[in-house]
Amino acid sequence: MFKTLSGRFLVLTIIFVMLAEILIFVPSVARFREDYLLSRLERAQIASLTLLADDMIDEDLEQELLRTAEVYNVALRRDEMRQLMLSSPMPHAIEATFDLRDAGPMELISDAMARLFDSQDRVIRVIGAPVKEAGLLIEITLGTKALRSAMIDYGLNILWLSAVISVITAFFLFLAVRGFLVKPIKGVVRYMQSYAAAPEDARRIIQPSAGVVELREAEEALQSLQMELTASLKQKERLAQLGGAVAKVSHDLRNILTSAQLFTDRIEMSEDPLVRRLAPKLVNSITRAVHLCESTLAFGKAEEPAPKLCHVPLIEIVSDVVDSERLAVGEFDLSFSEDVPAGLMVRADPEQLYRVIANLVRNARQAIMATGIPGEISVAAREEDDAWFINITDTGPGLPPKAQEYLFTPFQGGARKGGSGLGLAISSELMRGHGGTLVLARTDDAGTVFEICLPKGEVAEV
Fold first, then answer.
1. Which range marks the domain in which residue 58 is found?
2. What is the pLDDT of residues 12-24, one digit of tens each?
3. Which of 109, 115, 158, 394 is most deeply buried (CB count within 10 A of its CB)?
4. Residue 11 and residue 156 in one domain
5. CA 122, CA 336: separation in Å to the nearest integer?
6. Which residues have CB under 8 Å from 112's CB, separation 6+?
7. Which segment of the chain is annotated as a signal peptide (predicted)?
């Protein structure tokens, strides 16, 4: 029970109520002592009035009056004259004097605590003002044993009452906490457990209903988290399904392309100059497609294999990409330009770099052709001290805001209708594998520029 929130709250409530009662106990005991002494002064004054009514009373009556007042001596000052009204033998000498006429709260508390913890029976003198202004002052002497016993009895009664009040208060607070806090928290926990059992089920997402502001904020935060997680899981499920589909397609496509490779051998032996010029490019394209299918089948997952780095002439890769895209243009008025130094060698995986540049050039071509307006695509490269940079520039309409926001996110960063956004996501991942980057350098109405950065250092050092 004490490990639960409500159980600990119950214990803490009892403790704090008891502490509050203890803070009340100290001044209460001090007030009780003051009332006790004032009552003895009042009794003593009444006893002394008997003597004023009759100057001569016998000794037995005098002792009975003192016993009734529970004092040893009574002195009364009237008309500036102090007069011993009643007296009896004292067991001890007077050890302390207390004047109640001008005692402050702290003095009363200090005297009460000192008396409560002093177990010896002592004789004290108490001075006070007579009731009904029957004189200037009244002075009595009395023992402290009866006073201390009365204070202890009074204190125990207060403590017992405090304990009862604490338990009752804690019980009602316990019920209140269970109703207003514990039950709603348990409800949130049940929602979390239910959601964990089937996070793809949108019906298990919590619906905020708490009346307490803090709990409702927690429920709303949990609802937002669950909705985001459910959407993410659905996207990952689609990616997994896509991966399975791609693996199946790649298997059959590899077999088809392998057959196509056999036919290209015969094409290379053709006497037609145009066929002989285009045949090597066709062979290279089919070979790349076969390697891509084999890579997909080998890994069977969305992650790309580690790049096999080597120094390759960049102009050859760019030329292959541009030649392939020129064939796709047909009669459309779209020009290509290559600004790549002939001897520029870059350190990269040639197949992966080809895929990255091909993705960017193909996207640019599709964007320009979709507008129906003539345009130009340029591939430029430069070498710096620590890296190679490749820029793909087009004169297309630029990327829409949504495409810019989810630029490298699969299925969300598509820039054209029907586009999946996979091309840029794959290209960015391939460049990260090289230790490099693929960034959007500029996009506006005048066109778009993507920049590839390939570091010269080892990938592990980046």
1. 5-171
2. 777 877 777 777 8
3. 394
4. yes
5. 116
6. 26, 29, 30, 32, 33, 34, 151
7. none
